[in-house]
Every structure is written in C-alpha cells, then in structure tokens.
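Table S2 (text version). Query chain:
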Amino acid sequence: MRRWPLLLLIAGCTRTPAVAPAVVPARDAPRPGPIVSAGYLHHCVLDPDGTARCDGGNQLDQLRVPKDRLTAISAGLYHSCGLTTAGKPLCWGADRGPYPGNATSDLPAPPDVRLVAIAAGSEYSCGLDAAGALVCWGNRGWASAPPSGRFVALTAGFDHACALRPGGEVTCFGEAGGERLPCEQLESVPEGACRAGDTIPKGWTPAPAGLRAVAIAAGASHTCAVTTTATVVCWGADGWGDGNTIWAGQTRVPPGLTDVVEVSAGGGHSCARRRDGRVVCWGDVPSPAGRFVQIDSGASYACGVSAAGAVVCSATTASNGALVSFPANPVWAP
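Corresponding structure-token output:
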C-alpha cells in the first residue's frame, strides 16, 4: 500500500438498486437523471443524454472528458473511465499518481474489448464483458489476473477490487496484505471501540464466509455489501490516513440500519441509501438531510443525486485537489 495523507474510494456508479457502484444500467434504458461517481479528489457526472463532466482536482488531466456519448462513468485515483454506446472503454488521466520517482503515463484501455460495466481504481481499472467475465488493466500487477467465472457487478477500491457472482457470493482480490494493526497504534479511538491488546485489519480482507449480497462497494481498505435481507455488512480496515492509523470506524455499521438498497464505501467512511431515499453515513462523513436516488463515496467526501435530480456533495474539491469540507450534518451542497 502506498501511503497518502488521504486514502480513497474509487468505484463506478449505478442507478440499479440491485447492484452497487460500478455496474452500468442497460445501454438503451432511459435514465431520468444524472449519475455521479466520486473518486480520490475529483468526481464525475453522467447526464441522461450521455454527456460527461468532471470536477475537482485535475493534477493529471483526469477532468479531460471525451466528447463521446457515454453510458457509464467512473472516477478513480488520478484517472477516469467511461463506456461508449458501443461498449468501448475510454479512460483519461494517468495510471500513476505523482509520487516521488514515478513518471506519469496515460492509462489506455484495451483496444478490442467491449464491456457492459466499468470501474476505475487506484492505478488500474476493471470491467465486465457481456459474458460476465472480469477484464482488468493498468499499473497494478495483481489486477492482471482477475478471478475467473461469471459476475454481475464489480467495484474498485484502493488496494483491492471485488465482484459479485450471480448467486450473491462476493469475491475480492488485490494487493497481498494480511497485516493487523495493534489498537495501541491507533489515534482517536472511542472508548471501548478497540481495546489495548486487540488488533484490527490494516488493509482489505476477504468477504465474510456465507455472505450473500445484492450490492457491493470497495473503499480504501474496506468493503461493504447490501445483503439479501436489505441490511449492510462491512469488513476490512477501520483505520484511515497515513498508514491507516487514525480510527474512523468505517466498518462499524450503525445498529438498526435496514431496508437498504445501495451502499458506498470511502476512505474513512461508508454510506447507505434506504428505500425511502434517506442516507445514513458513518465514519468521518456526516449523514445528509433530504432524499436521494443515488450515492457514491470518495476519499473524505461523498456525493449523491437528490430526489430533485441535483448532484450534491458533502465536500468540494478545488482545481488543485484541495478538499473543502462543508459544515457538519449538512444538506449536502452543490
């Protein structure tokens, strides 16, 4: 895992309640409003007419949207991806962050593949072809050999990606990890949340045994799923920031959270959208007021499409990538 001041969620987006961010609607299906995808320090919006627009940090040209009409869009680390009406993947930006000693380079998608879903991650991207097979490319060696079989949804995080099989089984793959973090090394731990002598995962972990999901979302180093009973399960790291050492509690699902149709996972937070449109977030992002038809999470912020069709976020990103937070417990602002 590379260390940043902030980590990130990077996944695609959907309007389909049965699948989480990263699966596209049918290409000919009408969409009544926009969809939003939140990346590291930029986010992208796909309007109903197929026009894409991106805003926020533009360090490596990740806001340079193509003129093609798109059916899906996904904001990643320092790149973004979309699908044309023919299913051709297009990516723009760069596959390497501006780390010391790393040159930046373009992140071209495979020229001959046609996809029905796409998700931009951290220096890699993945998609699903019409047969449900995973296709991945980029600068992460582990992404070059994704799991085999048929999948119906996918989501891309920082150091891992996950895909959903037709029967609801969640398969995750990513950078080798398994490290655990002693509670004593964590900052800002609420009393009783992580006791001295205990440890928590430092990075992503496999899905819980027996889990059956209808929606999935990969965050920085954690993953969340909507179960077949419309509840939420999250697993992986609860730390955040440089070295995952700041407690955020992003896997600690609030008790009584039911009737969920969509979930998103960020850096140190997670959010869930209920059937009535209300959104509940936990970790370092506040829950918004109002009703929403779609949500997605970025590094330390979340975005959503309101019931009125407006794209709003819990924070805004400046052109230099700086993150400007809105007041606590906001009606998320445009």
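Notes on Table S2: DSSP finds no helices and 27 strands in the chain. The two ends are 33 Å apart (CA to CA).
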